[in-house]
Structure formats: C-alpha cells, structure tokens
Amino acid sequence: MSDYSYFGGIDLAKNHFSIHVVNSKNKVILHKSVTRSNLLTTIANMPPMRIGLEACGGAHYWARTLNKLGHDARIMAVKYVVPHRTKGKNDLNDAVAICQAVQHASTRFVPVKSPEQQAILSVHRMREHWVRERTALMNRIRALLSEFGLIIPVGRSSLMKQVPLMLEVAENELPHLARTVIADAYDHLEQLNQRIADTEQVFDSFAKVSDNVQRIMKVRGIWTSNRNRHFSLDWQWLTV
C-alpha cells in the first residue's frame, strides 16, 4: 500500500508537458498540458505525490527536480507503461498511462541518477561513439589503400604502423591527392585514439573511488587486467 494519497504521470517533452493527477480513489485532480516554464509552478502547488516518468532524455533531471519539491518521482521503462495505454496514443493519454503504471505493484523503477553519475555515463557514451567512428575510419583507410593494391594486415596496431610507411614510399602507385586524403584520415585516426585513451584515464580515476567497481574487481574472472577492462562492464549498472 502506498503512503501517498495522490499519484501523477507526466509525459516529458522539450517544450510542452502533459500532466495527469488522481487521488487514491482514482478521481482526476488534474489533466492538462503545460509549457516547460509552467511545469514546476504547476507541480509545486500540488500536494506531495508519487509521480511517474517514462525513461527518456531528461528523465533523471526532472526526477531530481521534482523530488526537491517534496514529491516522489519514479522513472520506469516504457514497457511498464504500454499495458496501461487504453486509448489512442497522444501526450495526454500517455500521461494517464504513466499515472496508472506508477501505481501498479508490478512496475519496476529505474534508480534516479545524480548529475555525477550521469556525467560518467556521458563519458562512456562518447567513448562508444568514438570507438565506432574509429573502426569505420580504419575500414575506410584499408579500403582506400586496397584500391591501389596496398593491403594492411588485420589489426589496429598493424594499420597504425603501416600507413605512415606506405605514405612515405614514392615507388607505389599512390597519387599525391590520395596520399593527402589518406594522411588526413590517419591524422584524424590518431586524434580518435587520443580521445579514447583520455576517456580510459577518466574511468581509471572513477574506478578508484566507486564502491560498485571496487566490489566487481573482487569477483574473480570479471575484472581483467587489460586496458579495456572497464568497458566490458555495464556502466549503467555500475553508476546506480
């Protein structure tokens, strides 16, 4: 049984937010859309309640902000909201479904993250982006060189060693324009390597102060000794 007499659901957006609030007897107290600038004023005038939010961009920020107003904001995955959507999909109907889901006993909630926890996840996401970009760039460099009969062995280290050598050899068939383009791509590749290395330093520092990471390090077979050890783990879980 909940300690709250009021329950709300907010469909988050960039500029307009839909709100649905009911009491413990399921009587509708509020059902409307408000602008971003009016959201907090509207919620601040409501009695303390449990408020449901769908997990999406900005959900953790809004959960923290609503909690500061004395409410109990809960974030949930969309899969818990869908079964409660009985009408056509629009923002207000979504707010109704979220409000119903936050009251349901089977709904599981996502822990609200602090700004610091979100920051480390931001670093992790950027690293993933740069790793994908690096892989695509290496494949592109290999493909360009292969057009001129120049083949590089498998592996990033081989590519990093061989490309400068190939660019320096005057006897191969690489035209000046191709050398310039590939040299620029190689410079960008080095920049990506440095950015990825910098994020690893951030994770090294984080691992030293994170209780969750320290516990994982004690489990045999999970935390390996290589430089990429942090990135096989689920940072979404580690920052809970």
From TrEMBL:
Which Pfam families does this one have?
DEDD_Tnp_IS110
Which example biological process does GO assign this protein?
Answer: DNA transposition
Q: Could you tell me the superkingdom of the organism this chain comes from?
A: Bacteria
Molecular function via GO: DNA binding; transposase activity
Transposase IS110-like N-terminal domain location is 9-147
PANTHER family linked? PUTATIVE TRANSPOSASE FOR IS117-RELATED (PTHR33055:SF3), TRANSPOSASE FOR INSERTION SEQUENCE ELEMENT IS1111A (PTHR33055)
**What's this protein's name?**
Transposase
What is the species listed in this Swiss-Prot or TrEMBL entry?
A: Vibrio spartinae
Organism lineage reads as: Bacteria, Pseudomonadati, Pseudomonadota, Gammaproteobacteria, Vibrionales
